[in-house]
Amino acid sequence: MPEQQNIRNFCIIAHIDHGKSTLADRLLEITHTVSKREMKDQLLDQMDLERERGITIKLQPVRMAYQLQATNYILDLIDTPGHVDFTYEVSRSLACCEGAILVVDSTQGIEAQTLANVYLALEHNLTLIPVVNKIDLPNSDRQKTADELKSAFGFTDDEILYASGKTGEGVEDILKAVITRVPAPTQPQAKPFRGLIFDSTYDIHRGVIVFVRVFDGQLKNREKIFMLGSQTEAESLEVGYFHPKMEKSDGLNTGEVGYIVTGLRDVSKARVGDTVTLASEKNLAKPLPGYKHIKPMVYATIFPVSGDDYPLLRDAMEKLKLSDAALEFEPINIPSIGFGFRTGFLGLLHMDIVQERLTREYNLDLVLTAPSVAYRIVKSDGQQLYIHNPAEMPDPSVIKEMYEPWMAVNILTPTDYIGPIMEIATQRRATSKDIKYIGSSRVDMHFEMPLSTIILDFYDKLKSVSSGYASLNYDFLQERVGDLVKVDILVAGEPVAALAAIMHRSTASNDGKELVSKLKQLIPKHQFEIALQAAIGGKVIARETISALRKDVTGYLYGGDVTRKMKLLNKQKRGKKRMKKIGKVDIPQEAFLAVLKK
Fold first, then answer.
1. pLDDT tens digits for range 86-126
2. Contact 214/195 with Cβ under 8 angstroms?
3. Within its chain, how far is the Cα of 77 from the centroid?
4. pLDDT at position 322, please?
């Protein structure tokens, strides 16, 4: 068992694509944790999807051994994701560590997620080690990046390290800094044993395996354990640590990061953020400060392309939930499309990753609707309810107030793009809070914005007006009362529930117009004229008309008086009028999906 003062627990935090995983590879190489034969790029990114896209999705712990001045140290590293949608993974890593390596790409400088992750780390009172990475690249500007670190966070010159994750230059200095600057785990109380569950995985043979950071006491193999949050008893069938594969050990001591094989078959019994203790000490142990329950921000409905695949989709969703604590779903039936699941995600990348994993890992053909947000309604009688789609919206006469989620948005951008970014933000009902300069050529812009206007295409627009240089981060701010209305779509005078939408009154008329003109292209012509209308209550705000399919009834005439032609055309007109009264419009499934997918 390692001495407690020789353990260092740390993580690597950075903006997406600043070189975290490459730096982690070099640390594993230098500490000889992985042999040259087993070494491959992005070693800690286990999923194919992570390796393909070059992003980290799941946090990944690993234990390294390193000798400095004849003392052997145990270094527990937790590699974290960098994208805004996976902030919950970052916060879980931070709760298990005493220090963090802050990596900044010297070719790009500080970005939005860098700021967000630093504030998260400071909330957890972590020791930060700033590292300017990618110094081997020809367009690297180490001095400018160091100046940004100093002006944004107040670091001094002697605190900042320079390294290249690719070539390995300066990486030894990072390891030494971790040992000298990051404090050892605090001295424990001898009893009771307490460990924080920061992640879990499911093994078909061994059941739920929980990843824990031990804060107090010691755990050995084959001891009865107890989860304080879910009030569940289990047994430590095997304990060990990550090397980076799981390696069995005799036990886990204070300050160590490792895993416990519980044998549980129900993953909800070993929730992330729960405290694990010994069954014999369950009345003595107090829960460790865990994590807040993750609240989904974005909702979309997932349907199988073939209705027969619904049971397969249900099984796949349940299995995916085991490794993705933030996923929430419930069954739903939309008559025009069929059965599916309304699913809650943390953001658009999370939604994209879940869809991709369901398609790849479970061979499913899926259709996703456009993302939407949850609205809170306060009725006149004081009753409150959350709605995720327009069909659930009660009659406007009983609604007292309707709240929508607003986000605190910060955008980091070169100064040249301030004007265009202001323009696209104000078009989406944003209010500007302040603008701070970081260094000489970059600004940190702060806005407050409704989430519903961010999730559709704001990120794409931001990238296009800033030539790809701006970076975005957002956090939930509060729910605010909004002038929101339900826009019904009427096809030939009949409202179609599946096509209704919730919009802000100020933009409803333009959005409604866009919706009906899109439907006009998607609904095929019938034998009679079809009116497409967007309406708020009884007031029509937009209209398009699909003209009738017409047969040339005068084709066989060969001249003669024009009244013969008019007589035939009028007869046709009367027939079309009669048809319009009794005719039924067939809306193809593609039209529903195209509108739902926006």
1. 566 566 667 778 888 888 888 887 877 777 778 878 877 88
2. yes
3. 23
4. 65
491: alpha, beta or left? (left if phi > 0; alpha if psi -120 to 50): beta
Q: Which CATH class is domain 485-596?
A: alpha beta
pLDDT exceeds cutoff 50 at 45? no
Sequence-distant (6+) residues with CB within 8 A of 53 are none
Q: Integer distance in angstroms from the first to the last C-alpha of the chain?
A: 58
Angle, CA of 403, 120 and 476, to the nearest 5°: 10
* Distance of alpha carbon 302 from alpha carbon 341, whole angstroms: 5
Q: Which residue, 483, 462, 385, 456, is CA-closest to 420?
A: 462
Cβ atoms < 10 Å from Cβ of 403? 18
Nearest to 178 by CA among 245, 117, 97, 94: 97
Task: Judge contact between 405 and 297, C-beta under 8 A.
Answer: yes
Percentage, residues of the chain above pLDDT 90: 0
53: its two tokens? 């896209």
Model confidence at 83: pLDDT above 70? no
Instruction: Report domain extents, the chain.
Output: 4-181, 194-281, 298-368, 376-481, 485-596
Amino acid in the structure at residue 457: D
pLDDT tens sequence across 407-430? 888 888 888 888 888 998 888 888
Give domain 376-481's CATH number out of 3.40.50.620, 3.40.50.920, 3.30.420.10, 3.30.70.240: 3.30.70.240
For the chain, percent helix, then strand, then coil, each to nearest 5?
Answer: 30, 35, 35
**Contact predicate 23/31, CB 8 Å:** no
Q: What is the DSSP string of 456-491?
A: TTHHHHHHHHTTT--EEEEEEEEEEE--EEEEEEEE
Could you give the count of Cα atoms lying within 13 Å of 84 in the half-sphere of its Cβ? Answer: 22
Query: 331 phi and psi, to 5 degrees?
Result: -70, 150
What distance in Å separates the CA atoms of residue 155 and residue 192, rounded to the nearest whole number?
39
Percent above pLDDT 70 for the chain: 84
Q: Which long-range contacts does 185-189 make (Cβ < 8 Å, 24+ apart)? A: 185/4, 185/7, 185/9, 185/98, 185/215, 185/254, 185/255, 187/4, 188/4, 188/215, 188/216, 188/217, 188/254, 188/255, 189/216, 189/217
Query: 376-481 with 485-596: one CATH topology?
Result: yes
Cβ-Cβ contacts under 8 Å for 259 (sequence gap 6 or more):
209, 210, 211, 212, 239, 240, 241, 242, 246
Number of H helices, E strands in the chain: 14, 31
Looking at residue 596, what is its pLDDT? 55
The CATH code belonging to domain 4-181 is: 3.40.50.300
The burial class, CB within 10 Å (0-12 / 13-18 / 19+), for 181 is middle
Distance CA 95, CA 126 (A): 9
The CATH homologous superfamily to which domain 298-368 belongs is: Elongation Factor G (Translational Gtpase), domain 3 (3.30.70.870)
Q: At what angle do helices 458-465 and 418-427 cross, to 10 degrees?
A: 160
Q: What is the pLDDT of residues 15-25, one digit of tens each?
A: 777 777 788 87
pLDDT value, residue 49: 47
Q: How confident is the model at residue 399 (pLDDT cuts 50, 70, 90)?
A: confident
